[in-house]
Amino acid sequence: MGESSEPTSSRRRTLLRSLAVGGSLTTVGCMRRLRAASGWESVSPVSVEIVALPADADPYALRVAQSVARWFRAAGLRVAVTPVAPEELYRRVLIRNDFDAFVGRVPARLREPDGLYALLHSRFGSEPGWQNPFGYANLDVDERLTEARSATGEARTKALAAAQHSIARTQPFALVAFPDAVRAVRGDRFAGWTRRDYRSPLGYLALDAAPDRPADAAATARTAPDGPAGTPTERATAADDRATTPTDPATLRVVITDRRPTENLNPLAAEFRWSTALTGLLYDRLGRETGDGRVEPWLADGWEFETVDGRPRARVRLRDDLVWHDDEPVTAADVAFTYALFSDVTLGRTDESAATPTESEAAVAAPRFRGRSSLVADAEALDRRTVEIRFVDCTAEVATRALAVPVLPEHVWRERTGPASVGGVDFGAASEVLVSNNVPPVGSGPFTFERNVPGDRLVLERDDDHFLADAAPTDLPGEADGLPSYERIDVTVVGADETAVSMVANGDADVTGTAVGAETIPRIGRAEGVDLVVGRSASPYVLGYNTRRPPLTNPRFRNTLGHLVDRRALVEDVFDGYAWPAASPLAGTGSVSSDLRFEDGHPVTPFLGSDGTIDAAAARAAFREAGYEYDDGTLVGRD
C-alpha cells in the first residue's frame, strides 16, 4: 500500500478521534502521551545524575548526594547518584563539563568577595578550572561583580549584596553547609596546634617544638648525619629511614587520605589541587594572605601602588639573594613570566594544526588562580629585582590579591609551553603546562622535594638557604616567624579517616593533614595524648548544577530544586551537627546583608517540607508553577 495523501494535520485529528473512542480522556498523563503519539509534541521524564566523591575520599559528599536524591525523587524527578574517584570527578566537572550536578566543596579562596567574580562571571564559563564550572551566565551578576571590583565603600557593599541576592534566586548551585574542619593532633612533639590554620602553609611553618622537649633536640636533629653521599636512591632511602623514626624530633609526620599530592605537584593542575598547603611550602608568592584577609610581602621586600590612567600600577621589589631549589637566581623576569604564563599557558604559540587561525591564536589561561591573574593586564621586569605590574580596572586593595599567586621559574616552565601530548595524543591548543605532574618540582619555597612514592608517600626537606632563615619576625606576615624547628615533612597516604586517626592515636603521625569526618570524634576523644582540633572551614559544600544542560539551563527550575534541599536536616543527619548552613557563599566574611542570613531557614529558597521530609504536594505545585507537568507521578518536560 502506498503512502496516504491525507494531509498530516487531518491524519492527526483522525488518530486522536480513534484513540478517544469509548470514553473521554481522563488524565493529564494520558493526554500528554496521546499528544506525543500524535506528533504534536514529545515529552520526557526529567532526570538528573548527581556525581560525588566516594566515602573513602570524602566523609560527607556521597551522603549529601544520597539525601538530596531522595528529596528530588519524592518530587517526581528521576535521579541517579554516581560515586566518582577524585581525579575523574574534577576532570568531569572542572575540565570537560561532563556532568548534570555534583556535590563537592568550593575552594576557600573563592569565598573572598572578589573570588565570586572568578566563581560565577560568565567570561569564565568556557574555561577549565574552578572559575565558573557551572557555565553560569547572568548579566546582572556579571555587572554587579564587575562593579564591586572597582567600587569602594557603600557602592561596593551594595554591588556585592545585589549580586548575592541574584545568585540566591537563580541558584547556579545550592549551598549546603560549611563543615567544621576536624583534625586529630599530638601535642607531645609539637605545640601550637590550636592556633594554626592548616589550609595555609603558614600554619605548618609556625608550629613550635613541644615545651617539654629537650632544648637541644632540634639542634641535635639538624646536625645528625645526612646519610650516604651515594646515589639519589641511596640518599632517598636514608632520608626515608630517618623520617620513619617515631621519636625523631626533626620530622613532622602528616597523614592524609588524598593520594593526589603524592602523584602530582603541579600548582596549576585543577584536578589535583584542592589545598595549597603542600605546594605552598614548595612555591613562594610575592605576598602571603594573613588571617584578616590582607596580603603582606613575602618574596617581595615590599610594593608601591600608584594610579595611572585610572588603573592601579605596582612596583614590586624582590628580596635580595633569592634562589630556586636548583640554585638558579629568582629574578623579576621570573615574576613577569609567571603572569604571562597564567594568562596564556602557550605564551602565544601558533598551533599549525588548529582548524582556523582563531583557534591557533586563542589564549589558553591557566585553570587555577584565574580570578587573581585576570586582575593583571601585564607585567614587566625593570631590573633583576624590580617588576612593574599593571592591573585592569579595579581598586588597589583588590589588585593586591593578584600578588598572592605562586611564582614559577622561567627556565623550567618555558619549555613546557609546547603542545601537550599524553600517550602520543596531541592536545592541540593545550600546553604541557597543564598536563605535567611536575615531579620533581623546582620552587623557591621553605621546603624542597626529597622523594615521593605515588599514592603512598611524599617527603619534603627544609631549605636552610631560604630567606626565612635570616628574616626578622617583623618582616613576615601572619603566623610566620622563620624556619620551623623540624627539618622534614613526611606525608603518608591512608585509605580512610578512621585509619588516619588511628595513626595519630598510635603515635605514628603528628596530625591528620586532611580534615576527617565527624564520626571519628569519639575515637579522637578516647585516644591518650591526642587532641581534637575543630575549626570552621571556609570551604562550603555545594550542590553544583551544569547550567549548560536542560532543564538546568532554566533558573526557575534550579530555584525550585533549591526549595527541595533541607540544609538543617543535612547538618544534623550527615554532618552530625559539625557544620553550619548558609544562604550565601560569603557567609562569615562580613560581606553578607542581614536579609541573606540563614536563621530559621533559607531566606530565599526555604525547604518545602519539615524535619527532612518533603511536602510532595507543595513540591509538585512549585514545579507546575515553573512550567512543568507530571505523567503518572513523574516530572516531565517538553522536548
TrEMBL record:
Superkingdom of this protein's organism: Archaea
CDD domains, per database record: PBP2_NikA_DppA_OppA_like
Gene3D superfamilies, alphabetized: Dipeptide-binding Protein, Domain 3, Periplasmic binding protein-like II
Record region (Disordered): 215-247
GO molecular-function terms, A-Z: peptide transmembrane transporter activity
GO biological process per UniProt: peptide transport
Keywords in alphabetical order: Signal, Transport
Domain Solute-binding protein family per the UniProt entry, residue ranges: 295-634
Residue ranges, compositional bias (Low complexity): 216-236
Protein family (similarity comment): Belongs to the bacterial solute-binding protein 5 family.
Protein name per UniProt: Extracellular solute-binding protein family 5
Organism annotation: Halosimplex carlsbadense 2-9-1
